[in-house]
């Protein structure tokens, strides 16, 4: 398992080792021991699986406020997505900065997104399935969103008119949200 640090500290792209032969292939999609050896020590408690029929479906930017904030390990098992993480920790040197990675069934890459980051993905193909692990259970009371097109963040989604849920259409801008993450050591 290859763990690649992105431009945002704590956000990683993970490339599993794939073993193939004439029958097909095999890979470990998650190994607590191997990730811990790389400095990622998380216990996941829930697996989620989504299906998006249309190309251009955008889900996010989503997060859960403390005490139910979630770390995510995201992979695309059918089709292709642009996966995005945004630093929403007040006082962070990377506050409002974002990174993106193309995850697909073909490349088998994954994105590790820690607490304090909002997450979204845009489907790049039809019939997309995304699976992800989280380290806290879903909490309706802590569930939040930020506008995908917040100009203060400026995620480059490309030339797309996204298919959005009502929840995502009506999400607030980050500056108007109640996101309660603070960068470690900063007093706000």
Tell me what you see in this structure.
The protein is mainly beta and 188 residues long. 5% of the residues lie in helices and 39% in strands. The chain is built from 2 helices and 13 strands; from the N terminus they run ββββαβββββββββα. The chain has helices at 32-37, 166-169, and strands spanning 2-5, 12-15, 18-21, 24-27, 46-52, 58-64, 72-78, 80-87, 98-104, 110-113, 117-123, 128-134, 143-145. The strands form 3 sheets. A 6-stranded antiparallel β-sheet has the order 1-2-10-7-12-5, with no helix packed on it. A hairpin with a 6-residue loop joins strand 1 (2-5) and strand 2. The termini are far apart. The model has no long low-confidence stretch (mean pLDDT 97).
Low-confidence stretches: none
End-to-end CA span:
38 Å
Structural class label = mainly beta
Give the SSE order as H and E letters.
EEEEHEEEEEEEEEH
Q: Averaging pLDDT over every residue, what do you get?
A: 97
Roughly how many Å is the radius of gyration?
A: 16 Å
Largest sheet, in brief, is: 6 strands, antiparallel
In total, the number of strands is 13
Instruction: Based on Cα principal axes, name the global outline.
Output: globular
Strand content: 35-45%
In helices, the fraction of residues equals under 10%
Q: Largest sheet, order of strands side by side?
A: 1-2-10-7-12-5
- Total of helices: 2
